[in-house]
Amino acid sequence: MFYSRYTPIGEQFAVPAAPTVFKDAELVLFNSSLNTQFGLNWDAESARLYLSGQQPLPDSHSVCLAYSGHQFGQFNPTLGDGRAHLIGSFTASTGDIIDLQLKGSGATVFSRGGDGLCALGPAVREFVMSHALSSLGVPSTGCLAVLSTGQSVYRQGMLSGAVVARTARSHIRVGSFQYLALQQDEKAMTLLLEMAMKDMGLKFDDERRDESIFLFFQSVCEAQCDLMLKWLQVGFIHGVMNTDNTLINGETIDYGPCAMMEAFSFSRVFSSIDRQGRYAFGQQPNMASWNCGRLAESLLLLFSEEQPAIERFSAILVNFSERFNDGYQQLWRNKLGLLQVHIDDQALVTELLELMTKHELDYTNTFASLTALKLHQLQDQFPVAEALKPWLVKWQAITEQYDDGQVAAMMVSHNPAIIPRNDLVEEVINDYYQQGNSTLLDTWLEALSTPYQYTVYPEKWLKSQSDPNRYQTFCGT
Ligand code: AMP
Ligand code: MG
């Protein structure tokens, strides 16, 4: 049932390595809907044994993967899974091939002096955020479970240790190609390319090799572009969009210093290490495009003549911008219920974004308030900010021409009513550190599963609480 699908690419790429055995591990969080959706159907004890390294997955050999990466623009040739083990892949009952990876499962040849461990807090964050983002309709890796290891991890003080069990449709990163390019390993890169294409539903045609590679690159660009539009739609700030944290299939991976935008600003940054604002909210699409450029450079290894390939790759990158610009216009149309094209649409959007920035309005609540208005309900829960009142008249004048029901339906499906707010995520994390469970999460997680549902919520879940200029996130170590 399980297998090691990266092993044929080469032992330097998928290095055999067993996860640490945590005998006292306990299952802290378990995503039973993923468990059934993928057809694993594990009971809690089987999950505990497999995910704590006590029992290997049948027929599989655990590996850690090599990759390089541009970290904040600086190239690092040897990163790789320094605290993660890919314990096996399987075909889910959905038909998807799924990789199962443990994070925090001990040091590997790629640890570079790190301890290979993960603290409970970041593990809980990954569980909550990946579930919330998937439910918001954002492509994301999943989190099947979080286990406490029963051991301590030293960060700034001693913290409880944990293992994250991550599910992903692929662990192939831009950095995976960068690594093989650096090794000048054309054979391994071709194998990786074939696998990556298959994962994305594409066929590598050996007779039309070059065209296959361009098709692949274009698909990666499209997947990245679409992911950026989704992040913009829901206000997600990844925080560490390095090429090693960029999956070629366009799923969100690595919930380290991520956060949700509350008070709106395109220049919003939360990560303590992002001092230049390289990965600020509004910078993310540029950075995704830049990362795609690094993929193109790596793929040049597969061409005998570089110049014509560079020209084709460059043209595809231009398409990235065009696709993004079209999607960007549509994004605001969707969020504002602008069913038809109107001459004043663009000005309306620009003015709204300026007002939101100036008055530090909550991104989610602002659009929820406009949605509630069109729904003719929940307007007490989602009041329109005073500062928007003059603007509102103009928006109403345009949208009143359209069918109210259709406007509301469009807005409901693009404007979440609830999101995983930063202070609540922190509260849940704190609960887990203090008492190993969280009554807040028990109810909140269920609500986060249907974030586009316009209903009555506890006030606390909707309140923009974290001070946007003070809230800081740290790399998920
Ligand atoms: P990240 O910032 O989580 O994407 O990690 C960047 C690189 O650092 C990856 O190669 C990780 O495997 C490695 N890394 C992060 N934390 C640790 C740790 N505690 N021990 C060893 N390696 C780590
Ligand atoms: Mg990473």
SSE inventory with pairings:
Blueprint: E1 2-3, E2 14-16, E3 26-30, H1 32-37, H2 44-51, E4 63-65, E5 69-71, E6 74-76, E7 84-91, E8 97-103, E9 118-119, H3 120-135, E10 142-155, E11 157-168, H4 174-182, H5 186-199, H6 209-234, E12 236-237, E13 259-260, H7 284-299, H8 306-336, H9 345-358, H10 363-375, H11 389-399, H12 404-412, H13 422-435, H14 439-448, H15 459-462
Antiparallel strand pairs: 1-7, 2-4, 3-10, 5-6, 7-8, 8-11, 9-11, 10-11, 12-13
Bound molecules: adenosine monophosphate and magnesium ion.
Cofactor: Mg(2+); Mn(2+)
GO molecular function, one term: ATP binding
Keywords: ATP-binding, Magnesium, Manganese, Metal-binding, Nucleotide-binding, Nucleotidyltransferase, Transferase
Detailed description of the structure:
- With 477 residues, the chain is of the alpha+beta class.
- Among the domains are: 7-168, no CATH class; 174-330, no CATH class.
- Helices cover 42% and strands 14% of the residues.
- The protein contains 15 helices and 13 strands.
- The strands form 4 sheets. Strands 1, 3, 7, 8, 9, 10 and 11 form a 7-stranded antiparallel beta sheet that branches.
- α9 runs antiparallel to α11.
- The longest helix has 31 residues, at 306-336.
- It is globular, with a radius of gyration of 23 Å.
- The model has no long low-confidence stretch (mean pLDDT 96).
- The structure holds adenosine monophosphate (AMP) and magnesium ion (MG).
- Residues 244-245, 254 line the site of magnesium ion.
